[in-house]
Amino acid sequence: MKHVEDRFGDGVPEEVLLLCLGITSGVGRLIFGRVADYIPGAKKVYLQVVSFFFIGLMSMMIPLCNVFGGLIAVCLFMGLFDGCFICIMAPIAFELVGAQDVSQAIGFLLGFMSIPMTVGPPIAGLLRDHLGTYDIAFYLAGVPPLIGGAVLCLIPWVHERQKLKERAKRADGETTEKMLENETTLVSDTTEKPVKEMESVF
């Protein structure tokens, strides 16, 4: 809101931007929640990657908007992918950590999210006081989502490797169990034969 006042003056209805963000965020949750139903397993992370990239890009585009209509368009896209980010968060946590640890995973996620949300506005205010504009704050705010999206691209690969290791461990466990069963049957057979021979002699 302060950026809009500095850039466009008091005659612009800046509350329209919050309205656009809220409406498209709700629409995004409905749309991307339905889309996520058709994406199997941990590949839902790629939806999160797309939302992170768009949120970062839209944040960086806010200072570039010299027309209020352009700022509305940016907020519409940002709200849409914000809704994607929020609705996909819980299903991804469920896919990655399982049903037993999903509540703890979401708690950690929300806890870490609260750190930049708390620290970000004071830093933006300090930058505004020193530089006289919010432009650098918006550029810097777009960097973490882009980096986070790039890191998230590796999550499905890591998840698949963990699954393969678990399957290999299970296969090793099954083979060792079968070997132990075969050994026990051989031992029991070897002990039963002399007993039968002795009985036949008597």
From TrEMBL:
<keyword id="KW-0472">Membrane</keyword>
<dbReference type="Pfam" id="PF07690">
    <property type="entry name" value="MFS_1"/>
</dbReference>
<feature type="compositionally biased region" description="Basic and acidic residues">
    <location>
        <begin position="168"/>
        <end position="181"/>
    </location>
</feature>
<feature type="transmembrane region" description="Helical">
    <location>
        <begin position="45"/>
        <end position="64"/>
    </location>
</feature>
<feature type="region of interest" description="Disordered">
    <location>
        <begin position="168"/>
        <end position="202"/>
    </location>
</feature>
<dbReference type="InterPro" id="IPR036259">
    <property type="entry name" value="MFS_trans_sf"/>
</dbReference>
<dbReference type="InterPro" id="IPR020846">
    <property type="entry name" value="MFS_dom"/>
</dbReference>
<keyword id="KW-1133">Transmembrane helix</keyword>
<feature type="transmembrane region" description="Helical">
    <location>
        <begin position="106"/>
        <end position="124"/>
    </location>
</feature>
<feature type="transmembrane region" description="Helical">
    <location>
        <begin position="16"/>
        <end position="33"/>
    </location>
</feature>
<keyword id="KW-0812">Transmembrane</keyword>
<dbReference type="GO" id="GO:0016323">
    <property type="term" value="C:basolateral plasma membrane"/>
</dbReference>
<feature type="compositionally biased region" description="Basic and acidic residues">
    <location>
        <begin position="190"/>
        <end position="202"/>
    </location>
</feature>
<dbReference type="InterPro" id="IPR011701">
    <property type="entry name" value="MFS"/>
</dbReference>
<dbReference type="InterPro" id="IPR050327">
    <property type="entry name" value="Proton-linked_MCT"/>
</dbReference>
<dbReference type="GO" id="GO:0022857">
    <property type="term" value="F:transmembrane transporter activity"/>
</dbReference>
<feature type="transmembrane region" description="Helical">
    <location>
        <begin position="136"/>
        <end position="158"/>
    </location>
</feature>
<protein>
    <submittedName>
        <fullName>Solute carrier family 16 member 10</fullName>
    </submittedName>
</protein>
<feature type="domain" description="Major facilitator superfamily (MFS) profile">
    <location>
        <begin position="1"/>
        <end position="202"/>
    </location>
</feature>
<feature type="transmembrane region" description="Helical">
    <location>
        <begin position="70"/>
        <end position="94"/>
    </location>
</feature>
